[in-house]
Design a protein that fits this description.
Layout: E1 3-5, E2 15-17, H1 20-29, E3 37-41, E4 47-55, E5 58-67, E6 76-82, H2 86-98, E7 103-108, H3 121-138, E8 146-147, E9 151-152, E10 163-167, H4 178-183, E11 190-195, H5 203-210, E12 215-217, H6 226-256
């Protein structure tokens, strides 16, 4: 079932006019018929079942009921990602949105090959947001990914979260094991994950963030590409916290019997 985002407060029985792009997609790409069902998300964690209505060459969604959203993660993850080449960056945006990242913070570090050109930032951000929107619709998320402006590496020191991690290829695989670090923070509700560009980080950069409360983390014995490291880390953190939430729910269920 196709999903669309309408960033507004929604009530049952509302008749919502779809925008030009959504209308074209419904009528000409999906070739939907009157009464056909779609999902509408308000972008704030609510999802609704609606049916399509056509009137005066316009497309409307008539809201039938609110449905349970099962896509919300148990931890809010910010991905701070060093800029990488265009095709890989676009792929990273799409897949991290599908994996449940809440926020993406692009940055420029000392080893970045890609540079942020201020005169093109608005156009780039518009295109990146469209990639994120389409990915969120495809995977049936009820919330959009928040995309920040590109910042300097040093600005990452100002980020606040319950869990602050920097992936580093020279981190000790035993003492900096991701699963062990996560277990030390079972009640974390937010995390910032810092992933480098194609050239990784200098030791000085890693130490700079460690002084700001970050922990270096190893992703195993293999050296991963930047986009692979980001997806692996987002997926694993989400999985670990989903597992812990499930175990806690099962324990409380047993205690109540």
């Amino acid at each position: 079932m196709q999903q669309y985002f309408l960033m507004k407060s929604i009530q049952i029985n509302d008749v919502l006019e779809m925008d030009k792009e959504q209308s074209h997609h419904i009528a000409n790409v999906m070739r939907m018929k009157p009464e056909e069902k779609i999902r509408i998300a308000d972008g704030f964690g609510h999802v609704y079942l609606a049916h399509v209505m056509f009137k005066n060459k316009k497309v409307f969604a008539v809201v039938d009921e609110e449905i349970v959203d099962t896509t919300l993660p148990n931890i809010s993850i910010t991905l701070a990602q060093g800029l990488i080449k265009k095709e890989k960056w676009d792929f990273l945006l799409q897949k991290c949105a599908e994996l449940g990242v809440s926020r993406i913070l692009p940055f420029v570090s000392s080893r970045c090959v890609v540079k942020a050109k201020e005169d093109r930032q608005d156009k780039k951000k518009e295109r990146w947001n469209k990639i994120l929107l389409e990915a969120c619709e495809q995977c049936k998320r009820s919330t959009l990914v928040e995309l920040e402006d590109t910042c300097s590496f040093s600005a990452l020191k100002n980020e606040e979260a319950d869990l602050k991690l920097i992936a580093y290829e020279n981190a000790d695989r035993v003492s900096c094991k991701l699963s062990d670090i996560v277990k030390q923070h079972p009640n974390a509700k937010s995390a910032v994950v810092v992933i480098g560009c194609e050239g990784g980080f200098s030791l000085e950069e890693v130490e700079e963030l460690e002084h700001a409360g970050y922990q270096r983390v190893s992703l195993g014995s293999r050296i991963l590409r930047a986009e692979t490291a980001a997806m692996s880390m987002i997926d694993r953190i989400g999985f670990y916290y989903d597992e812990m939430a499930g175990e806690l729910h099962a324990k409380h269920g047993d205690d109540s019997e």
